[in-house]
Specification:
79 residues
């Protein structure tokens, strides 16, 4: 298991996500973002807008995703 938080993944808070793979962490982050969107959380809405701008540039989005995946992989496993 490894842990990353919302802000490490481009979000706006310290909500922690624990998983065995980066793909699992990314899915948890996505679910959290949808919850925050439904709550109309201003900080998360801004973070989502920033991510949408990044998504307009596929090469930049791929680079961002790969850097986050490497960050996850570099984390030490938790006990």
């Amino acid at each position: 298991m490894k842990t990353m938080n919302c802000s490490q993944l481009g979000g706006a808070c310290d909500q922690a996500f624990r998983a065995n793979s980066f793909e699992e962490i990314a899915e948890m982050s996505k679910q959290h973002a949808m919850e925050m969107f439904q709550k109309k959380d201003a900080a998360h809405l801004k973070a989502m807008n920033d991510m949408q701008e990044l998504m307009q540039k596929p090469a930049a989005m791929k680079e961002w995703f790969e850097s986050k995946k490497k960050e996850f992989e570099a984390l030490p496993p938790e006990e």
